[in-house]
Design a protein that fits this description.
Leucine Aminopeptidase, subunit E, domain 1; 6-stranded mixed sheet; about 170 residues; alpha/beta
Length: about 170
């Protein structure tokens, strides 16, 4: 069973094998978590993202790709594209769960033991925070993956932190 931890803070400062980036489909950086990771990690992350984009044309919602972490304390960055909230009628829950599942699978493929997730899709993509947290926690807790030692949910804002804390206390 994967050990689950919760932190309030900046994911770019977390020392783990991999941090997860809430990326956009172009993998070219953007705002929020994505922009912060690209700024803190430096140009090497963007250069690797460009190579991935040139090979596979980007990354679809629910999918994940991996790059080095540049100047970050983590070893790798797993870039996953969360769904834009459209009222729940466009398979958003399945796509969001896919972000967490596919990120874990990439971590296993790369023999990583610790991974930190932000609150995927809850910023500009508008996913309701409580529903997104429920999907994240449920997906990690019900994962059959045994190779990962620890997952850390890193909440930048107080609202997400309180939601995760409440949900994690209920299980």
């Amino acid at each position: 069973m994967i050990n689950i931890e919760l932190q309030k803070g900046d994911i770019t400062k977390v020392k783990v094998d991999a941090i997860v980036n809430a990326a956009n489909s172009s993998l070219m950086g953007g705002g929020g978590v994505d922009g912060a990771i690209h700024r803190a990690g430096g140009n090497t992350i963007l250069e690797e993202c460009i190579q991935i984009r040139n090979r596979k044309g980007g990354c679809k919602a629910g999918e994940a790709v991996i790059t080095g972490a540049g100047n970050l304390p983590a070893k790798f960055v797993i870039h996953t594209v969360g769904p834009v909230w459209s009222g729940g009628q466009a398979n958003e829950p399945e796509k969001l769960a896919g972000c967490y599942r596919n990120s874990l699978l990439l971590a296993v493929d790369n023999k990583l033991k610790t991974i930190a997730f932000p609150n995927v899709s809850t910023g500009i993509y508008g996913y309701p925070k409580k529903e997104a947290a429920q999907i994240a926690i449920h997906t990690i807790k019900n994962s059959i993956i045994t190779e990962i030692d620890s997952v850390i949910f890193v909440c930048y804002d107080e609202e997400n932190y309180r939601i995760y804390k409440e949900l994690l206390n209920d299980i």
